[in-house]
Amino acid sequence: MATLSHEALRLLIHEFGDPDEYFSEMIHAPSFVHGGRFESWYVRTSPCPERMVWQLTGGSEGPMVKAASMLRAYGGIGLDINMGCSAPDIAKTGAGIAWMGKPLAEVASLVRSVRAEFPARLSVKCRLGEDENYPRLLAFCRMLIDEGAELITLHPRLRRQGYARPAMRDYVGRLASDLPVPVYGNGDVSSAEDARSFLEKSHCAGLMIGRAAVQKPWIFSTISGLPPAASLTAPDGRVDHRAVSDFFLSRLRECQPEEFHISRAHRFFFYYCDNFSFAHHIKMRIQKTKTPDEIGGLLDDYFVQVEADRFSPVC
């Protein structure tokens, strides 16, 4: 997730309990290849280098292939080509979901060439496409596999669908049944119980969890049945949201360039504040802050006014 799945968030999740895999922020291939000023921050591997997957984005084959070759030096267990991001700023450059609308020969050449340069697992994340056309989606995914993809992640929404409509999870189950490689499902996972239900109904090999991992960084430990992290919980096991916020802001200062501090903090708390009774009020106030220290002060004031919101059950 752009501006979210960076090292600071991964360290927070790690404090509660790791997922099987961590996917990096989207690495912009042309910027990475040309040594962009901030690119080194996108390829940090803490806390679990042995669980890292590099998610790569770009609008043309050349930089994508070169970046894949360069990423070998950073380790990790895999590389994921993003063909699912529908953000207009990404798609208009020919990246993300734009790949699903390109000639199949062009897409096949990209996957084949990246496969030749990157020896570890190669995966592709995609959406349903422009409309609900399962035969076309299935043919597209089979082509990806023929060219070397070993895992497919599906976000089951159309290109122009936002989050207001629920993800169409049945498509994940259909792909999982019809493809010869593992399929991960993605979309709207809101809790450990929901994650288990998604897995049971779709029979997919795994789940990619995004926004819920920001709102509930303990979600992976809850799915695994692990006890809550003592450092970030009260003696009774409830999450201490002030401790979580302090931990995240501290790691953010340590693990991101100063230019990223406030934008990444705004992005994190936009989702994390959904744990609170007056979520809209506090998240909008946080969006107006200029420094991470201001955010800490706002949260101190909020928990004085709404004392019951400081702690909540792990769920």
Structural overview:
This protein has helices spanning 7-16, 29-33, 39-42, 61-71, 88-91, 104-117, 134-146, 170-178, 192-202, 211-215, 219-224, 241-255, 261-272, 279-287, 292-305, and strands at 22-28, 52-57, 78-83, 121-129, 151-158, 183-186, 206-208, 239-240, 311-312. Strand 4 (121-129), helix 7 (134-146) and strand 5 form a beta-alpha-beta unit. It folds into two domains: 20-208, Aldolase class I (TIM Barrel, Alpha-Beta Barrel); 230-312. The two termini are 23 Å apart. The model has no long low-confidence stretch (mean pLDDT 96). The chain is built from 15 helices and nine strands.
SSE layout and pairing:
Layout: H1 7-16, E1 22-28, H2 29-33, H3 39-42, E2 52-57, H4 61-71, E3 78-83, H5 88-91, H6 104-117, E4 121-129, H7 134-146, E5 151-158, H8 170-178, E6 183-186, H9 192-202, E7 206-208, H10 211-215, H11 219-224, E8 239-240, H12 241-255, H13 261-272, H14 279-287, H15 292-305, E9 311-312
Parallel strand pairs: 1-2, 2-3, 3-4, 4-5, 5-6, 6-7
Antiparallel strand pairs: 8-9
Please provide the count of β strands. Answer: 9
Instruction: Provide the CATH topology of the largest domain.
Output: TIM Barrel
Beta-strand percentage?
5-15%
CA-atom Rg in angstroms: 20 Å
What is the N-to-C order of secondary-structure elements (H for helix, E for strand)? Answer: HEHHEHEHHEHEHEHEHHEHHHHE
Basic shape: globular
Main sheet attributes: strand count, strand direction, barrel closure: 7 strands, parallel
- CATH-level-4 superfamily name of the largest domain: Aldolase class I
What oligomeric state do these chains adopt? Answer: single chain
CATH architecture label name of the largest domain:
Alpha-Beta Barrel
Distance between the termini: 23 Å
- Structural category: alpha/beta
Helix content: 40-55%
Q: Poorly predicted ranges (pLDDT <50, ≥5 residues)?
A: none
Sheet with the most strands: spatial strand order:
1-2-3-4-5-6-7
- The count of domains is 2
**Class of the largest domain, according to the CATH hierarchy?**
Alpha Beta
